[in-house]
Design brief:
The chain is an alpha+beta fold. It has 21 helices and 13 strands. It has a 3-stranded antiparallel β-sheet with strand order 6-8-11, with no helix packed on it. A two-stranded antiparallel ribbon has the order 1-4. α11 packs across α12 and α11 crosses α13. The radius of gyration is 35 Å and the shape is extended. The termini are far apart.
Length: 537
């Protein structure tokens, strides 16, 4: 016991000595060049004062020392708008186009209100990423210009998501696009890709305004415009380049929004409060899960779940392909607790099925237990198409199915079609000595079918010039594959001309009904008085 007491006493004396004794060299010889401000980044403070680095043992700061050193107080940002303003780094653009866009936005307060309220879910994450990369926070305002912060936005040119990635550019920046998900709409993945792309463009041009022009117009187009001005001996700034009207307005739009955010009072605009706090957090999925059930377990509305997880465009989330979901900050723990306690059956009522052989939609619907209409709607199957072998479809998950969808199917699942060959009613003129048998041989048909279609006997001979009814195969449309971006070839389907006789009448493929002929073959009955179908974008 005496030994323990002695050790404790020695430790107390040592601590007291460290706190109360001061080495002369440590207090009086410390130069301004050898001290530092606490919590700094190593850069020199503004003014003539150099950073101060303490040396020697720790000692209490005296009253005179506290007053002799400058202290800078830092207040945290009041909200996200304040935080964004503090990170402005891009040079301002001054032009009449900026003034024009300022007035356009300022005269539409309802539009600004909708845009800014929609951004509430995403802007904290974007600003965090920008600050982590030391990029200008003005870029957090770019989705206002691109999509009005709508992650489900799709342009007429097929750009998608809040950052409006084209399919090919999305692929270049590792944004997955398959039948289950489109990462161009994913909040986290698309933000990562957009900032990667913007950093690349800034590295190419060394100017943020040119980088933004390239984001809108393409780096190749901007590079050619710069080279053209260089050949002509002209300046190569954003304002000096010749570019399309959309690109010419692109940076002025961003500058106008920046000016409104910087000083909303000057434009009689009120920005909604967006707290400087994460809106969402990431939750890992361990099982395939229905989208509706995920929203229910998180205790949020389905539309709110989709707003945070817009990349998933099927009714089921595949754990192997969508390993993480986003949930509101306070609902993540609720989801995990409810997920672990869930005992009302399967987590997923849908699964993926790889078609073993080329099949009709009717056959697939029968095997999957769905109606043909529901199968087409769920899997976006166009009319008059066969589903090719190897295609992946979303179908109901049976109670006996225990395994989730594999990573291979979740990552590489695709949906391919081939035209369904239909038989179309056509009339041909009989030649000299033509009979049921000769017509059947000419068009590779069964004599019994030709006889039945014309209500004659199989050994019947036709008079010259007689209109013989036949049903000939016609391809409805060229082959198609989901996700290729290839537009279907529109027009009229033609039937090969009759050998050695007058040409066969060609009938339009569009606007016809496929029906069964008396001989069991598919035939097409013409629609009358119909209107052309609306062209889909």
């Amino acid at each position: 016991m005496k030994l323990i007491a002695a050790v404790c006493l020695a430790g107390s004396l040592l601590l007291a000595g460290c706190a109360g004794t001061t080495s002369p060299s440590s207090s009086s010889t410390t130069s301004p060049q050898s001290t530092a401000t606490s919590g700094g980044t190593g850069s020199k403070a503004s003014g003539s004062a150099a950073p101060v680095y303490p040396g020697g043992p720790l000692t209490p700061i005296t009253s005179s020392e506290a007053h002799s050193q400058s202290v800078i107080t830092l207040a945290p940002p009041a909200d996200m708008w304040d935080r964004i303003r503090r990170g402005f780094k891009m040079p301002n653009l001054e032009s009449d186009l900026v003034r024009d866009r300022e007035q356009w936005y300022a005269s539409r307060p309802d539009y600004i209100q909708r845009m800014t309220e929609r951004s509430n879910k995403y802007i904290f994450h974007i600003v965090e990423e920008l600050e982590r990369r030391n990029m200008p926070t003005e870029l957090a305002l770019l989705p206002y210009i691109e999509s009005a912060f709508n992650p489900q936005a799709i342009s007429s040119a097929r750009a998608a998501g809040m950052w409006q990635f084209m399919p090919a550019t999305g692929t270049d920046f590792d944004l997955k696009q398959n039948i289950f998900r489109d990462d161009r709409r994913d909040v986290v993945a698309s933000t990562r890709a957009a900032l990667d792309y913007l950093q690349k463009l800034y590295g190419m041009f060394g100017d943020w305004q040119l980088a933004l022009a390239a984001y809108n117009w393409g780096e190749g187009s901007v590079s050619r415009a710069i080279a053209k001005n260089q050949r002509l001996g002209l300046p190569t700034t954003y304002s000096d380049l010749s570019m399309p009207a959309e690109t010419r307005l692109y940076v002025p739009k961003l500058q106008a929004v920046k000016n409104i955010v910087a000083n909303p009072q000057a434009f009689n605009t009120e920005l909604p409060l967006i707290a400087n706090h994460p809106y969402f957090q990431t939750v890992t999925l361990t099982r395939d899960l229905d989208v509706e059930l995920a929203a229910k377990l998180a205790d949020i509305r389905l539309e709110d779940f989709r707003a945070l997880n817009p990349a998933a465009h099927k009714p089921v989330l595949l754990a192997a392909g969508t390993p993480q979901i986003l949930l509101p900050w306070d609902n993540a723990a609720v989801f995990q607790r409810n997920f672990d306690a869930y005992s009302q059956g399967q987590y997923a009522s849908w699964t993926a099925w790889v078609v073993p052989t080329t099949m009709t939609v009717a056959d697939v619907a029968q095997r999957s237990g769905m109606s043909e209409a529901d199968l087409r709607a769920l899997n976006s199957i166009p009319p008059r198409m066969l589903i090719k072998a190897g295609s992946t479809l979303i179908v109901p998950r049976g109670a006996r199915v225990k395994e989730d969808v594999t990573a291979l199917v979740a990552d590489s699942g695709h949906l391919s079609f081939q035209p369904e060959i239909v038989n179309r009613r056509t009339t041909v003129k009989a030649g000299r000595n033509d009979s049921v048998a000769s017509i059947a041989r000419r068009y590779k048909l069964k004599p019994a079918s030709v006889a039945e279609w014309n209500d004659v006997k199989p050994n019947h001979s036709f008079k010259r010039g007689y209109s013989v009814v036949v049903y000939l195969p016609v391809r409805a449309a060229p082959e198609a594959r989901v996700g290729t971006g290839a537009a279907p070839v529109r027009g009229r389907a033609a039937v090969a001309a009759k050998r050695g006789g007058s040409p066969v009448k060609a009938v339009a493929a569009r606007g016809s009904n496929v029906v069964k002929s008396p001989a069991g073959k598919q035939v097409v009955r013409e629609k009358r008085g119909g209107t052309p179908s609306k062209k889909k974008r």
